[in-house]
Amino acid sequence: MKSILDKTFLVFDVETTGLAPQLGDRMVEIALIQFRNGKIMRKFETLINPQRPMSYSAYLVHGISDDMLKDAPTSQEILPSLYEWFQESYVVGHNVKFDLKFLNHEYALAGYEQVEHDCTIDTIKMARGFMPQLKKFSLERVANHLGVNARQCHRAMSDVEMTHEVFSQLLEEARQRNLHVEEKFLNLFGKKRVVRQKKREKLKLIENAIEKKETLHLLYSGSVSGTMFRKVSPLKIIGKGRQAVLSGHCHLREQERNFIIDKIVELG
After folding, report:
1. What angle separates helix 182-189 from helix 123-130, to the nearest 10 degrees?
2. Residue 29, helix vs strand vs coil
3. Which residues on adjacent β-strands are paired with residue 46?
4. CA gap 194, 21 in Å, rounded
5. Are 10 and 127 found together in one domain?
6. Is 105 a residue of the active site?
7. In the chain, N or C terminus with fewer CB closer than 10 Å?
8. Mean pLDDT of 170-199
9. What was the pLDDT predicted at 193?
């Protein structure tokens, strides 16, 4: 079985003129760290001339001004040389779909194909899965919880360095939980639709745990919070079919909770 730990990763972050590329917003900064087996292979960062004015709201976030960008290269000058980096790596980011949306917009303007969504990993998904008690999952909050000594300043390289450290620790957590097999890892934290354990198998495991008064460890895919780990002492199964739920004591919340069985990814 292939392990995700043996792959090449590319952590990246962009800063922009605003939030909507479809309305004309552009990238103004990009930073990347490519690494494999814990060793950094190469790093890159640059400002980018967006060829349009900076919005004041974006300037208040990252502090990049029009004057700082006037002599910077354009995305058409920078991005073609980076395309190979993305093609040969698993792409990692904190809320990666936002950065990927801007990146692919810029590549489209330059006449390049999009970076594949199936080869991306979101550290927010990983943090929600491994640390559901946090409730909020900003990069700075996750980093502080993991002991990463960093302050988020919304500049591309500082955020990439923080994400790199966060991701490295979350990868180790995945290894310790035996979730490093590539297919299972991408099922949980990649872009593809989550594939769940067969319902018949889940019901049998729940019934056995209720009978033997055993605790279950489950992966639960919530519609808002994403896939997370829960330790549950099962009490009963309520309802049938799509309405069936597992009622039990949730050790995270320390209260009785209901879990829709169709949303349980895996039981163990």
Report:
1. 90
2. strand
3. 30
4. 28
5. yes
6. no
7. N
8. 84
9. 59
- Please report, for residues 6, 126, 168, 176, the alpha-carbon distance to residue 172 in angstroms, rounded to integers and kept in the order given: 12, 11, 6, 6
pLDDT single digits (tens) 4-59? 999 999 999 999 999 999 999 999 999 999 999 999 999 999 999 999 999 999 99
DSSP string, 87-134: HTSEEEETTHHHHHHHHHHHHHHTTPPPPPGGGEEEHHHHHHHH-GGG
User: Which listed residue (154, 164, 217, 249) is catalytic?
Assistant: 154
Shared-domain flag, residues 134 and 23: yes
In this prediction, residues 166-189 reach a mean pLDDT of 90
Of 161, 189, 217, which closes a domain? Answer: 189
Distance between CA atoms of 24 and 21, rounded to whole angstroms? Answer: 5
Distance (Å, rounded) from C-alpha 202 to C-alpha 244? Answer: 11
194 domain residue, yes or no: no
Tokens 């949303």, located at residue: 263
Q: From CA 233, how far away is CA 246, in angstroms rounded? A: 10
Enclosing domain of residue 213: 199-267
121 and 254 belong to one structural domain: no
Which phi and psi (to 5°) does residue 54 adopt?
-80, 135
Q: Report if pTM > 0.85.
A: no
Q: Are residues 138 and 263 in the same domain?
A: no
